[in-house]
User: What shape does this take?
Amino acid sequence: MKLIFPLVFMSVLLFLTPFNTSAATLEKLPSAETTKNWKVVVGKPDTNNPKLNKSTNPDLYNVFSLDIKNVSDEKIKLEKVEAYREEPKLDTQYELFTAELNKEKYSSNNFHFQNFGLSKKSSYLKVVVTWTKEDDNTERKYREEFIFQQ
Assistant: This one.
């Protein structure tokens, strides 16, 4: 009888102890990432858009803003910004937005996207930045991907 009580106590203790603690180590949004050419910031949404705040269901979506800044000394031109999330249970990615940048609308190499919704079922956000070098006559495009965990 003396041996049964400690065994039962230890088994109950084992079942109550959480084993999966890896989620605490994931990087959470909002977040920022910097490379040689770009600083990409996934931040809090712009609050000056009441239409988005009414139409976005907070139970289904988290809302963020996106800022991209050129931190390079090179003369480069931002061409395109794309954002994707993974589609749960599929091998495909879902496009959130694509911004084709032109000189008239974006005169600098900085980019700001006010608000976008990211499904709470999605575990990551992928931002793809495409640019060209202004002093390169070949019009070769360069691309960099940034992954943010939610």
User: Anything to note?
Assistant: Confidence is low (pLDDT under 50) at residues 17-27. DSSP finds two helices and eight strands in the chain.
